[in-house]
Design goal:
alpha/beta, FAD/NAD(P)-binding domain, nine-stranded mixed sheet, 18 strands, binds flavin-adenine dinucleotide
Length: about 375
Amino acid sequence: MYHLIFVVKIKNNMRVCILGNGLSSLALAKALINKKIYVDVEVSKNKSKLNKSRTLGISKSNLDFFNKKIINIEKIIWKLKQIHIYSENLKNEKLLDFKSKEDQLFSILKNYELHNNLEKSLKKNKYFKTLNSKEKKNNYDNYDIIITTDYFSSITKKYFNKQIIKKYNSSAFVTIIEHHNILNDVATQIFTKDGPLAFLPISPKMTSIVYSVDNSKKYNIEKIEELIKKHNFKYKIKKINNIESFDLKCLNLRSYYNKKFLAFGDLLHSIHPLAGQGFNMTIRDIKILLKIIENKINLGLPIDYSINSEFENKTRHKNFIFTNGIDFIHEFFNLERKMNNNTLSKSIQYFGRNSSINKVFISLADKGIYI
Ligand SMILES: Cc1cc2nc3c(=O)[nH]c(=O)nc-3n(C[C@H](O)[C@H](O)[C@H](O)COP(=O)(O)OP(=O)(O)OC[C@H]3O[C@@H](n4cnc5c(N)ncnc54)[C@H](O)[C@@H]3O)c2cc1C
């Protein structure tokens, strides 16, 4: 008795157009072409210059995913083993201490190096094409899905203008300090009276700074330099490089998609950088979108824009809770600054010493609420 098994393989000719060419766009494009999906990236009209002072902290599980499913970035990362959190309100006593049993808790990299690596590997790939402004036809009929990461595209303005937004009236000042050679594998965050200040090591001789302060105090570059020097207790600083600033907001899109059109990256959700989670959220989104596509391919189903609603159902509520969690941390320390007492920091310190609670904090920073 013979059993005949027919394997029907549906040819995957899916075509995706991604609007914008920031980190979210290029990382997503690379993840999709690795699945042999054709991707055209439409370059933003106002091409923003790559900022050399910006860095990103990527969690351990997101780095593993990035290396495996997007592109191997081991050569451009700097590994951190611990994160120490202090509060100026507790006279710079340690509030929390996060360690990993493995060799890394978080990794830091320079945004422009990641951008360049992604761009280089995409350019070589036959599934990838860049559309410059002349080639743009604003006709998306040939694509199965159009994904926008670009705030300024007409598609974004047309379909994705309903946001839940909270402007912090704060700016993040970022720079890279150069210092004497040290064993530089511990990140430090200090909740100062002016706002959260992070020292994020990127090499034995260089550390990236992210200092978020209230706009109402009208800090200038000189004042920021003075505050960095005041709070630094670790590094013998040789040079403070160019300081740049970014406006901060907490944002969630009400709807992630409209038929064939899907929003992605910071356009879907923007958060305060105090926990270094913005791009980590996008990596988790890419992981989920890939899983949905993989499931369709495995079941022999065609890949069409029905994946947009599936993606929204799986991510929107979790992203909303996560962004609000980060906003809560921001408001919590804001309140303490305004109250001018240290009861809240003391209670955080107390709970953080409990090893189970400490593990929950580490897991949330690593995997978000997709535990
Ligand atoms: C100070 C700071 C520190 C951060 N640290 C971390 C961290 O440690 N870890 C982490 O996970 N995340 C961090 N983030 C968040 C992370 O940087 C963002 O999530 C990520 O860069 C978003 O990429 P994107 O491609 O979605 O958006 P964008 O980079 O904004 O790009 C989207 C599109 O819009 C275009 N565009 C952007 N700005 C303009 C403009 N002004 N004019 C015209 N076009 C424009 C771009 O060219 C691109 O096509 C931090 C953010 C800030 C502000």
